[in-house]
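Open question from group meeting: does this chain pack into something compact, or does most of it stay loose? Before anyone orders reagents, we agreed to write out a predicted structure and look at it together. Recording both the input and the output here so the notebook holds the full record.
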Amino acid sequence: MASMFSDLFSNDLAIDLGTANTLVHVKGRGIVIREPSVVALNTATNEIQAVGEKAKQMLGRAPANITAIRPMKDGVIAHFEVTEKMIRHFMRMANNNKRTLVRPRVVVAVPSGITQVEKRAVRDSTESAGAREVFLLEEPMAAAIGVGLPVQEPTGNMIIDIGGGTTEVAIISMSGVVFSKSIRIAGDEMDEAIINYIKRKYNLLIGERTAEEVKIQIGSAYPLEERLTMEVKGRDLIAGIPKTLIVTDEEIREALTETFSSVVEAVKIALERTPPELAADIVDKGVVVAGGGSLIRGLDTLLKEATGLPITIADDPLSAVANGAGIVLNDPKLLKKVTF
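C-alpha cells returned:
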C-alpha cells in the first residue's frame, strides 16, 4: 500500500550529472531539463544568483562578488554544497516548482572509475537535495541502454562515452560491465588544449567559452575535405589589449592531437582486455560512440582507422546517458540488475 502511494504521488527522476551539462529525466515525461552544470554564487551572501544557462553566461564576465562555479570536475563532485544546491534546483524545476507529497527515488549516472568516497559524495548530495532513495548507475551502462544496445543478452556490446569530464570505454554483456576503462580526459581537456595552443602560438589568451565555441565550430579529429576557419577574440598577452585572429581547423586538430591519442589508447586497452568470444561479437557488431565528444568531426574515421572496427555515432549522443537512466528507472527488474 505504501509503495502504491509513493508511486502515485512522487515524481521519480533519473539524473545525468555531467561535468558540462546536467540532464533530468522525469518518469513518464522524458527529459525535461538540459542545462549547463554551472552555479553563480554571491560570495558576500552565499546565495545562489543563477543556475544552468544563466549562470554559464556569467562565466568570466561576473563582478568580484559573484563567482560562476562548475561544481563537477572530471565527472565527480568538486564542490559538495554547491552540487547539492544545483541538484535541489534542478529537482524543483523538474517538478515545475511544486512540492510533492512523497520525496522522489532518483537514479544518478556516475563515471565507472569513481572511488567509494566519490560515490558516497554523489549519494549524500542527492539525498540532501531531497531524494528518498538514490540508485547509482555506471555511465557506460546508461549510455549503452540509452542507445538501444542489447545489454541483457549474452553478447558483447562496446560503448565509448565521451563527456565533458571523462571518457568511458566499456564492454557490456548480460547486464554487467565485463571491462571498463575510465579516463579523466574529455571535452574539458579539449577546451584547455585549445586555450594553451592559441596562447603558445599567438600569445593570445582566450576564455573557456570561446575555446568551447572553437571546438564545436571547427574542431576535428581527422583531416577534412574542406578547410574551416573561425574568428577568435581574446587578449594579447604582450600588448595587453583585445585582439582578433583567424584560426583554421588544421591548427585546432593539431591542438587536440594529444587528447584524441589518449581516447584511442583507452579504446585499445579495452579491446586487449576483452575475452575472445566477446571480441568476436564486437568485430561483427562494431562500436557505438555517445556523449558530446562524439560530435567532433572525423572522430568515427579516426577510431575506425585505429581499431579496424565498424564505428557508429549514436543518433542522439547528448541524451544517451539520461535516456538510459530513464529506461532503468522505468524497469524495476533492470534497476535491480544494473544499479548499486
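Observations to bring back to the group:
The first helix runs from residue 2 to 9.
Confidence is low (pLDDT under 50) at residues 1-9.
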